[in-house]
């Protein structure tokens, strides 16, 4: 008894003595697994200090690995039990699989989750939407970035409708000083992501069409899914010489060097372009069919962050995740990385004008995510990958829009039950 | 006192001891994985466990319309890739070797080195450099053609379905032409001077000497080169992957068995990897290569006449 008392006394005095080393030893250290090694500086210099200042006793370490190795490395670490407390989540199936294996914890009731819309959470939910397992961090928005100087020089207005869009392209082509559209088909995904998924939501009415496709109520051969291909096929005449062998970096360079007037973009380009261009840039959302139509944009959920189910520091980790769901995090993150937008329902103040332009579309347009990402790319053939080839073929003119749509539908029907019924 | 029969040979342990390290390493890194792959191709993964399905995966690969379309497309592309090498790389290699073995040629060492250097370059570099050279935007190919007034011949070759694979085949030929050249060159040097002198006495010189004397003597080397080309081509992957990506565009026109295997085994983008089907494709590649090599060993090599000097 006396002995124990003495020990407690000793412990008490040592806490009172409060040496720095001892205090640190009682801190909880959280480790974040991530593929975003580009963001290391932002985490270390801005995000983590902001969090630690408010939460003494919790230390955070951001430990990223190479993007291409992330999924494999993370799976191995989780299986071995050596993964960090917080896991940066890829959207959809990759993370869902981790949740199903009970490697990601259920965060449905996490304080702060209410700040996100259903679309924002859809990338990290079970198919029925009953459980959410990652806090949405950022999305990327599709649209078109244009060279403002070139538009002024040629006296062009930002197009609102598709007809205006093609009229603008015609004028740029006629003038001959600029390549109207900076896009190539060599890397395939450019055609699908910057092309099909960029303009498509206006045709299939965003979430309405996307969900109907998942339920099996619409088919890829329906006009709203074929028409984007038909429009894409018209782009061919406005692309640069030899676009068939033009790669993604080629397209970026053509635009930033001022040789092309319009760049079909994803908002992640903003931070890259800002450092490279010497002209003023503007942006416009994908043009609608007729003036006054509701516009739809692809506001694609890209990064989330979840909790390792086996983390010994779950309490501290949940505190951190609640902070990630807060306005403060959103503001720092969105400003440090213009082009990666917070998914929070509350608008975030941003300084970058181009990023502000992109995010302003959320007010007037209906957001959706890329149609092929949820559920529909689970089987073989993989709808997303097939869409890459189909989009490139259609632009190259080697496959008609109808034939491409037919092929995609056939592939989807071959394994996806809801599409087999009718 | 009995005399031990001397006929019993001592076991020669040293042979086993000397063979062991290499055999062990080879078994661990080559033979076991090979059988592992073959075994994997006979199973199918379910959420619970791997289930034995016999040849079901092979039936899917060859019977399912989608799988078989991809497979035959990749196989045909691979055959075409091989044809290009056999028709272009090896004749050029032989020609270069014949030129280099000419004792009157100056700067032989320089040419030999210059032609051989691309072989030691990394595929990634070769793929990248050629992508730049042929780029319609920054490349030197369009401007060079323009210089000689042939700009109209230029096309974005790597982006056209009908040219992409042939272009890649020729890039690969450019990279590897040094290997047949070196092997043939060595074989040509090994021909004894007496034979050539005898031929000259008989009035066989110049081209006739090459066709009638040298070529028959280097045929075994050409055979070896053909087999090496065959194995190398049907295992090819790196060049296509580094210049066209795993989707082997445009429209899978450059998809060969190696890229098809990679996409299937490891998955790509949203496609999740399927190790069992991947192993099935790998096994098919193994069987194809095995069949090709056996055909050569038993069908051709045994008939080649060897000359002992």
TrEMBL record, chain A:
Organism: Chelativorans sp. (strain BNC1)
Record has Signal as a keyword: yes
GO biological process: transmembrane transport
Family: Belongs to the bacterial solute-binding protein 1 family.
Keyword annotations from UniProtKB, A to Z: Periplasm, Signal, Sugar transport, Transport
Major location (coarse): periplasm
Role summary: Part of a binding-protein-dependent transport system for a sugar.
Cellular compartments annotated: Periplasm
Entry GO CC: periplasmic space
Keyword Secreted tagged: no
Highest taxon in the source lineage: Bacteria
Signal peptide: 1-25
PROSITE patterns: SBP_BACTERIAL_1
Species classification: Bacteria, Pseudomonadati, Pseudomonadota, Alphaproteobacteria, Hyphomicrobiales
Name of the protein: Probable sugar-binding periplasmic protein
InterPro entries tied to this protein: Bact_solute-bd_prot1, SBP, SBP_1_CS
């Amino acid at each position: 008894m006396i002995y124990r008392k003495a020990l407690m006394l000793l412990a008490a005095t040592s806490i009172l003595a409060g040496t720095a080393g001892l205090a640190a030893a009682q801190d909880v250290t959280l480790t974040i697994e991530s593929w975003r090694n580009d963001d290391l500086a932002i985490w270390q210099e801005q995000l983590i200090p902001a969090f630690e200042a408010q939460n003494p006793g919790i230390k955070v370490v951001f430990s990223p690995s190479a993007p291409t190795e992330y999924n494999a490395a993370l799976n191995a670490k989780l299986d071995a039990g050596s993964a960090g407390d917080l896991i940066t989540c890829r959207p959809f199936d990759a993370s869902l699989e981790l949740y199903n294996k009970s490697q990601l914890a259920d965060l449905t009731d996490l304080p702060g989750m209410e700040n996100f819309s259903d679309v924002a959470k859809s990338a990290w939910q079970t198919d029925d939407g009953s459980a959410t397992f990652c806090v949405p961090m950022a999305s990327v928005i599709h649209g078109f970035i244009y060279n403002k100087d070139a538009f002024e020089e040629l006296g062009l207005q930002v197009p609102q409708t598709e007809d205006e869009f093609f009229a603008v392209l015609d004028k740029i082509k006629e003038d001959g000083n600029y390549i109207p559209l900076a896009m190539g088909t060599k890397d395939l995904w450019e055609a699908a992501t910057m092309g099909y998924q960029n303009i498509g939501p206006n045709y299939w009415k965003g979430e309405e069409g996307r969900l109907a496709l998942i339920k099996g109520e619409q088919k890829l051969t329906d006009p709203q899914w074929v028409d984007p291909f038909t429009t894409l096929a018209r782009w061919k005449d406005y692309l640069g010489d030899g676009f068939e062998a033009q790669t993604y970096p080629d397209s970026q360079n053509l635009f930033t060097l001022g040789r092309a007037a319009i760049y079909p973009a994803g908002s992640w380009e903003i931070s890259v372009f800002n450092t490279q261009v010497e002209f003023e840039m503007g942006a416009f959302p994908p043009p609608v069919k007729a003036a006054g139509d509701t516009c739809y944009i692809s506001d694609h959920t890209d990064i989330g962050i979840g909790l390792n189910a086996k983390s010994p520091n779950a309490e501290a980790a949940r505190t951190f995740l609640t902070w990630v769901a807060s306005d403060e995090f959103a503001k720092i993150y969105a400003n440090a990385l213009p082009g990666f937008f917070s998914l929070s329902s509350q608008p975030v103040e941003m300084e970058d004008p181009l990023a502000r332009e992109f995010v302003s579309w959320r007010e007037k347009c209906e957001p959706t995510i890329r149609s092929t990402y949820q559920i529909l790319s689970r089987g073989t053939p993989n709808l997303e990958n097939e869409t890459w080839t189909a989009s490139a073929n259609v632009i190259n003119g080697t496959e008609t829009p109808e034939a491409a749509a037919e092929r995609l539908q056939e592939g989807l029907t071959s394994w996806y039950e809801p599409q087999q019924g009718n | 006192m009995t005399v031990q029969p001397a006929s019993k040979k001592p076991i020669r342990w040293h042979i086993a001891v000397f063979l062991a390290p290499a055999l062990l390493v080879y078994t661990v890194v080559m033979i076991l994985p090979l059988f592992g792959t073959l075994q994997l191709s006979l199973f199918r993964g379910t959420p619970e466990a791997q289930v034995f399905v016999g040849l079901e995966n092979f039936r899917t690969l060859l019977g399912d319309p989608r799988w078989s379309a991809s497979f035959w497309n990749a196989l045909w592309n691979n055959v075409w890739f091989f044809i290009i090498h056999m028709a272009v790389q090896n004749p050029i290699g032989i020609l270069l070797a014949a030129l280099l073995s000419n004792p009157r040629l100056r700067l032989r060492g320089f040419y030999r080195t210059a032609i051989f250097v691309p072989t030691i370059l990394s595929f990634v570099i070769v793929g990248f450099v050629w992508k730049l050279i042929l780029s319609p935007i920054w490349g030197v190919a369009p401007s060079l053609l323009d210089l000689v007034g042939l700009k109209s011949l230029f096309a974005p070759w790597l982006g056209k379905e009908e040219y992409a694979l042939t272009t890649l085949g020729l890039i690969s030929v450019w990279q590897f032409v040094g290997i047949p050249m070196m092997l043939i060159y060595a074989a040509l040097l090994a021909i004894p001077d007496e034979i050539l002198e005898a031929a000259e006495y008989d009035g066989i010189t110049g081209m006739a000497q090459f066709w009638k004397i040298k070529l028959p003597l280097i045929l075994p080397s050409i055979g070896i080169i053909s087999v090496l080309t065959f194995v190398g081509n049907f295992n090819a992957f790196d060049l296509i992957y580094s210049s066209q990506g795993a989707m082997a565009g445009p429209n899978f026109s450059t998809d060969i068995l190696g890229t098809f295997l990679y996409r299937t085994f490891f998955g790509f983008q949203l496609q999740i990897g399927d190790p069992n089907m991947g192993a099935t494709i790998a096994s098919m590649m193994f069987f194809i290569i095995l069949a090709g090599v056996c055909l050569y060993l038993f069908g051709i090599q045994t008939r080649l006449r060897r000359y002992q000097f």
